[in-house]
Specification:
Order of helices and strands: EHEHHEEEEEEEEHEEEEEEEEEEHHHHHH
Largest sheet: 5 strands, parallel
Strand content: 15-25%
Helix content: 25-40%
Bound molecules: flavin-adenine dinucleotide, ligand NA7
Oligomer: single chain
Radius of gyration: 22 Å
Structural class: alpha/beta
Number of strands: 20
């Protein structure tokens, strides 16, 4: 423990959870290792730190952000609430269940600002490369100080990779796309619906991005939205103006052809085809290689790289649970790094992972998937002192949310839930989501009467 050094790559919700986990011990007078968190952006918050940029950033690094204007939480906030920092504590009043991005950013920031975590973070610093030295059991990190254009290296005993996995697009090719005259982009580069006003828009994919970008473009005035699915349609009741069709086969000019023999003319295409787990700073033998699923292979408890448990990955799962899952992971990782938690031998770890993978491979739909991730969270909570929360109740809320979406994809964000942390029932938002075109924090937090006065003006 003495003189040990911990490197964290990324100051998004996962990296910040790791900092907060150590801080919780430090506050109790426990001596923690020396921690350095490297963040390539100039602020924390990861995905929640909105950037208007696409392509490369100010210093030529690939832009991390995939979030866009007018993004509202796609699940109830009660399902992601930190169990050691409630929404009530932060906002001092009940708020609705589906806040917009700036409000969730404010919440994430609120908890971390209460701590001294900032002093551990080196902003504008990219982790460029990592080597592991078997002889001294240390990681050497090659780091780029982007502002000063300076490269240096440092040694660490533990490496926490919290660099996210919704940043590097998975971009498929469709025959004829090179001659499509309209715009073609990946969801990663989508920054808002405005540019698609009055357009006929084609989205490829049938998961969160396709659903949300589709609904958002509909809300903000696209002429029509067509979602093209590969395996299964999203299958909710779509309003007139949004529809789902089978997979795109090819383009002829601006005409898209689909697997069921139909065709249609479009103005623009957004590939909502998911992301790659990409770790350009890691050598082959340390790199997590996985698709986006609920239990990536290679990592024990979804965290510890089985070949080398001093290498820790946070938040690499597909996500129903988010902030509270990253916390639960970070607390377990912390206890391992503090040498408080002893891991079983490698083959036993392998067996544990195989049991989870077996269950993963037999999952029966999204309700079953919610139960799977809920059990995973319970498993994590049993391993650390992260404040317990009622996981079964959260699972119920997730299932209600799935049902709400099936029932009406345009109004599910108007529903309210009750916090398992404080018992507070969420407020209804002063404006129905479909009518609310302003996602600013100021507007969101305004009281009902203030909004009415504003309307009367
Ligand atoms: P990230 O938030 O991606 O943070 C990773 C951090 O690592 C970034 O700050 C990045 O700059 C940094 N980094 C990466 N590489 C390097 C490097 N080499 N060196 C230094 N720093 C590096 N979740 C919800 O709960 N509700 C939602 O409504 C929701 N909507 C979403 C919408 C979109 C469009 C996307 C893409 C995701 C959404 N998510 C949502 C999931 C979201 O990814 C998580 O909430 C959360 O941001 C994941 O946290 P993270 O810290 O693991 O990763
Ligand atoms: P997801 O959830 O990983 O989904 C990716 C989708 O893209 C899924 O529907 C895939 O279909 C589809 N896909 C992938 N490759 C192709 C090709 N080649 N052709 C057609 N369709 C394809 O990513 P999202 O971006 O939706 O969500 C990621 C996060 O962003 C999420 O956490 C949200 O909160 C926001 P499949 O079903 O595999 O056939």
């Amino acid at each position: 423990m003495k003189n040990k050094r911990v490197a964290i790559i990324g100051a998004g919700p996962s990296g910040l959870a790791q900092l907060r986990a150590f801080e919780a011990l430090e506050k109790n007078g426990v001596q923690v290792p020396e921690i350095v968190c490297f963040e390539k952006q100039e602020n924390w918050g990861g995905m929640w730190n909105y950037s208007w940029r696409t392509g490369v950033g100010r210093y030529g690094e690939p832009v991390h952000g995939s979030m866009y204007k007018y993004l509202w939480s796609n699940g109830p906030k009660e399902c992601l609430e930190f169990s050691d920092y409630s929404f009530d504590e932060h906002f001092k009043k009940p708020i609705s269940s589906y806040p917009p991005r700036p409000v969730l950013f404010d919440y994430i920031e609120g908890r971390i600002k209460k701590s001294n975590a900032k002093k551990y973070i080196r902003f504008n610093t990219t982790a460029r490369w990592v080597d592991y030295n078997n002889a001294n059991q240390k990681f050497t990190l090659v780091l780029d100080n982007l502002k000063e254009n300076r490269t240096y290296s440092e040694e660490f005993d533990y490496l926490v990779v919290a660099s996210g996995h919704f940043s590097t697009p998975n971009m498929p090719y469709f025959k004829g796309i090179e001659d499509f005259p309209g715009g073609v982009m990946h969801a990663h580069d989508f920054r808002g619906a405005d540019q698609f006003k009055n357009q006929n828009l084609l989205l490829i994919g049938s998961s969160y991005s396709a659903e949300d970008i589709g609904v958002q473009c509909y809300k903000h005035g696209a002429k029509s939205v067509t979602l093209s699915y590969r395996s299964n349609p999203i299958g909710v009741e779509w309003p007139d103006g949004i529809k789902e069709v089978p997979l795109l086969t090819h383009f002829e000019g601006d005409i898209a052809h689909f697997a069921d023999g139909t065709s249609e003319k479009f103005d623009a295409v957004v590939m909502c085809t998911g992301y790659q787990h990409k770790f350009p700073f890691l050598p082959d033998e340390l790199r997590l290689k996985t698709k986006n699923n609920l239990y990536p292979d290679q990592v024990y408890k979804g965290i510890f790289f089985n070949e080398l448990p001093q290498l820790i990955y946070l938040g690499m799962q597909d996500q129903y649970y988010t902030f509270n899952m990253f916390d639960a992971q970070a607390w377990v990782a912390r206890d391992f790094m503090m040498e408080e938690l002893v891991l079983p031998e490698k083959d036993q770890r392998r067996k544990d992972m195989d049991d989870w993978l077996k269950r993963l491979n037999n999952l029966d739909g999204c309700y079953d998937a919610v139960d799977f991730q809920s059990d995973y969270i319970k498993d994590l909570l049993s391993l650390s002192d992260y404040p317990d929360f009622n996981v079964d109740k959260v699972a119920e809320m997730f299932k209600e949310w799935l049902g709400d979406k099936e029932e009406n994809i345009l109004t599910y964000r108007d529903k309210t839930f009750t916090s398992v942390v404080t018992g507070t029932k969420a407020e209804e938002h002063h404006t129905e989501w479909m009518e609310e075109l302003d996602d600013s924090k100021e507007r969101y937090l305004a009281f009902q009467d203030e909004v009415e006065i504003e309307l009367e003006k």
